[in-house]
Structure formats: C-alpha cells, structure tokens
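We were asked to recover a plausible sequence for a given structure. The inputs and outputs are reproduced exactly as logged, with field labels preserved.

PROBLEM: sequence recovery
POSITIONS: 520
GIVEN STRUCTURE:
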C-alpha cells in the first residue's frame, strides 16, 4: 500500500481519472512528474503565461519518497527547480500551489482525516468522524519573492512547525497549533457555514481518491493471493491530508499509507533535556480510530453474533421463557462492546456506492488486465497476453492488424518502462495498458467523449469474454454427457486448465443461452 500512495503514483492515478472525469477530479492540483515531465512542465507554464501575462503562479515541489515536509520547497518559475543531480536520484512531483487557503486566526492549516480501507473486494471504506487540524505558526501571506522560503508560513507539517518558537502545544481541542477538526467545524458553523456541505464534499473527495487508487492495488493484491481462494483479512488506515480553500472547497494534498499514531509530544524541560508529554488532541482522535478499527475488523465478531442468534432462537420459539433461561442466555453471551462508546468510523462505501460506481471504469480495466496476465506472480502483461486480449475481445480487423497490435504494445511498453520506478520484470504495466485501452477506445468510438468511449469498449470486451466463458462452460458440460470424457487424450487436451485463445476452442455445441447480437 505504501507504494500506491507515493506522490508520483498518486498523481498518475488521479491524472487518469482527470482525463476521464475532469469535473469530478478537480480537487487535486495540476501536477507534473520530475524529471520525466520537466520539459512538458516548462512548455505548459509558458503557454499559459503567453495567453495571460497577468498570471503569476506559484508551484510547490515535493520529493516522491519524502515525508514530514522533508525536501519540500516553493518556486515561482520552472527555472527555479533544483535540477543538478538531485532529481535523478530523488524524483519529485511539482504542483500548482494553492494561494488562497481558508485561514483561522490568520494562519494557514490543513486537515488530517483517518480513512479505514476495510476491504478491497468488495470495496469498503470508513471515514473517522473527527480528525486533526495542523496549523502553521506564522501569519499567512500570499507567496512572493520575500516570503517564498518561510516554511512556517506555507507548510502545515507538524514535524516542521514544532520547531518554531511560535508553536503552541494544545491543552484543549480548540486551541493551540494542533486542534480537532470538529472544533474548526464548530467555529465555522457559528459563522453560518453549511457544515453538512463541507463534510459531503470531503467524503466525495475521499471516495473518488480511493476509487483512483484501487485498480493498481488490485494488481498488487493478485500477486500474493491465489485466484478463487479467500485471502487474508487485510485492512489499512490511511491518512488523508486535505486543505480547505477560502471558498471552502476541499483540495487533496496527499495520502499517507502509514500515518503517525503517536499520542504524545516531546517537551524540553531544560536545554537538551526532553520528556514525552501526552497530547490531549492526538489522544482524543487517534485512540478512537485504532479502537474502532479493531472493533470493525475483529474476526470473532461475526462468530459471536451467530452464537447470540443461536441462543436467542430457541427462546423465541417458547411462548413464556423463564427468567432463569433468559439469564443463562444473557450471561452465556455477554456483549464485549457494551461498555464502549459508539463507533467513530462512518461507512461511506458501499453506503454511497450508487453515486460513485460510474467512476469505476479503470477498476473494470484492471479486471481485464489481471485476467490476461497469465503467469502467477507477475504484475506486467507480456506481448502474448496482450495479443490474446485483442483476439478474444475481437478488437483487430482489416484496418487494425495484429502487426499493428504488436507495434502498439512495443511503443507504449517501451515508453512506460523508461519512466517507471518498478524495473523488477519487463512487460506492460497497468498504466501502460490503460493508455493502450484509451487508444483502442478512441479508434473504435470516435464521436463520443472519452469516458463514454472507454465505457463502451469495456462493455464490448466484457460481452465477448462472457460469450467465450459460456462457450467453454457449454463445452465442459457436453463433455460429461454419455459418461465419458469429451477428449481422448491428445497433448492439447492434457491441459484443460490452460487459457484458450479465441479461434482455438475445442469443437462443441454452439448453443448459448443469450443472443449473439453484435455490439460492434
């Protein structure tokens, strides 16, 4: 999971979704990956400046593997990027800087929200009902040449601001340099802000971000979990860092795979002498998140519920159970959570799935990609697998030959292998497959918007593959008729589990349960 939320991986995943649904994914700042896209960054910035000479942008550079504010700096022009040797060994993301954040007490702040990814398939997401607000320690001013390097003004990272002489350790939820998010909402509510709208926008941002990340996470998951077998009960607590703009629109800054769960801070008693002091704000938020995560993922919880139901059913059948029987049932199955507060984690998916499922196009593409990987233990699609995908989904024709398919595979794979950080094996990664899929969709459905082109091609592929699967099923059933195997044991028949390419199916009945209307 750590690999999935690195700054470059996150930017690429969100960019794919921005290409498909630009209005739905406008909560993530425009980003460029360095050093690979440095020339593109320079050209696009210059193009905008030529069209609008009054545009005075600020950009923020973030090292890909950085954390706690390490290596982050602001620039006003692409020429200010520190290129000399650094980016080659430490790639980075450069983003448009949000110059008009919401201020509290004249200070910039961000929000750390904790999100529980309880299950990947089916997707299940929970959001903590409270979070942390981390404040800068120097009054905010829009970036200019004089204040560009004032990290305590522009960067909200706790690990940086704690070293400021203005940092105030919080002795309540609503004061100091770290406060609860609920205290900020209360303050905004007192000024007439629609808090329900703010929360709704944040929930939407979280769900859309997870939808962008899950396709590649599925590819990683299949690497270790055998197909058709239940995997281990895995979960992950993610830390979402969100900035509210002056107009209260939430902006995603980054996602942390291993957010700090520390509930204490160091306090200097005398020069060089420190002690750990409990943080009331951290304790209030983080203890609840960990406690309720364990309650939700408890593998024994379902067993206890079943046992409780089994004890209650015989009593329910009796018209008048005695007090002793009721007492035995109650004592025999005590509720271990009876003394705990209500769950602080709110389910947002699948609860709101019907509002967001239309966005899961890349998720469906990932399912196609995984189907044709072929060899267990790989995350990249070989040329044979890509050809089989094209053939089985009937995507080649007289104007797009298999030779053209091979050229497409080579061009896209070579380009992605030159920029990807993962060089463990050769072949087409998921992002390269998505690019190839976009190309195929645009060829086949020229007059539609991109997301409709992609959705139409996915429907077409899934249709042809369902026909292929049913044909194999019919073949298997017809082989059992008459009490004898369908084949007599040739070398080709000795491996019935091997994938069958379209056109190489064994002879069998062609009776399918649904019509063969052509989608193309």
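RECOVERED SEQUENCE:
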């Amino acid at each position: 999971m750590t690999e999935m939320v690195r700054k470059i991986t996150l930017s690429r995943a969100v960019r794919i979704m921005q290409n498909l649904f630009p209005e739905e994914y406008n909560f993530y700042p425009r980003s460029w990956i360095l050093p690979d896209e440095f020339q593109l960054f320079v050209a696009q910035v210059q193009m905008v400046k030529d069209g609008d000479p009054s545009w005075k942008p600020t950009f923020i550079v973030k090292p890909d593997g950085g954390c706690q504010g390490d290596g982050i700096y602001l620039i006003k022009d692409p020429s200010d990027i520190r290129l000399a040797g650094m980016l080659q060994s430490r790639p980075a993301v450069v983003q448009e800087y949000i110059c008009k954040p919401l201020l509290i007490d004249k200070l910039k702040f961000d929000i750390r929200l904790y999100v529980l990814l309880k299950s990947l398939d089916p997707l299940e997401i929970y959001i903590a009902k409270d979070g942390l607000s981390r404040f800068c320690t120097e009054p905010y001013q829009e970036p200019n040449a004089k204040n560009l390097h004032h990290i305590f003004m522009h960067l909200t990272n706790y690990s940086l601001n704690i070293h400021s002489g203005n940092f105030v350790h919080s002795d309540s939820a609503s004061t100091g340099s770290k406060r609860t998010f609920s205290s900020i909402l209360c303050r905004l509510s007192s000024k007439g802000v629609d808090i329900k709208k703010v929360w709704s926008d944040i929930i939407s941002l979280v769900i859309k971000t997870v939808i962008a990340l899950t396709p590649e996470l599925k590819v990683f998951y299949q690497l270790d979990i055998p197909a058709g077998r239940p995997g281990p009960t895995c979960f992950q607590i993610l830390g979402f860092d969100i900035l509210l703009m002056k107009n209260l629109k939430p902006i995603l800054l980054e996602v942390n795979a291993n957010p700090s769960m520390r509930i204490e801070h160091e306090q200097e008693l005398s020069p060089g002498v420190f002690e750990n002091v409990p943080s009331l704000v951290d304790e209030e938020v983080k203890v609840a998140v960990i406690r309720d995560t364990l309650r939700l993922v408890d593998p024994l919880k379902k067993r206890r519920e079943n046992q409780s139901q089994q004890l209650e059913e015989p009593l329910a059948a009796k018209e008048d159970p005695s007090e002793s029987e009721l007492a035995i049932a109650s004592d025999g199955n005590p509720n271990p959570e009876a003394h705990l507060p209500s769950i602080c984690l709110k389910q947002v998916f699948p609860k709101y799935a019907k509002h967001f499922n239309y966005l899961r196009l890349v998720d469906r593409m990932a399912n196609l990609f995984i189907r044709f990987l072929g060899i267990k233990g790989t995350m990249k699609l070989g040329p044979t697998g890509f050809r089989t995908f094209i053939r089985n989904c009937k995507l080649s024709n007289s104007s797009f030959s298999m030779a053209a398919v091979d050229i497409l595979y080579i061009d896209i794979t070579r380009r992605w292998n030159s920029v990807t950080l993962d060089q463990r094996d050769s072949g087409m990664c998921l992002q390269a497959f998505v690019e190839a899929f976009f190309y195929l969709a645009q060829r086949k459905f020229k007059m539609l918007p991109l997301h409709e082109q992609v959705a139409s091609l996915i429907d077409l592929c899934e249709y042809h593959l369902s026909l292929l699967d049913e044909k194999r099923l019919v073949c298997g059933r017809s082989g059992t008729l008459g009490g004898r195997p369908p084949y007599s044991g040739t070398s080709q028949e000795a491996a019935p589990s091997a994938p069958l390419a379209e056109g190489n199916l064994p002879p069998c009945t062609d009776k399918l349960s649904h019509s063969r209307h052509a989608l193309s």
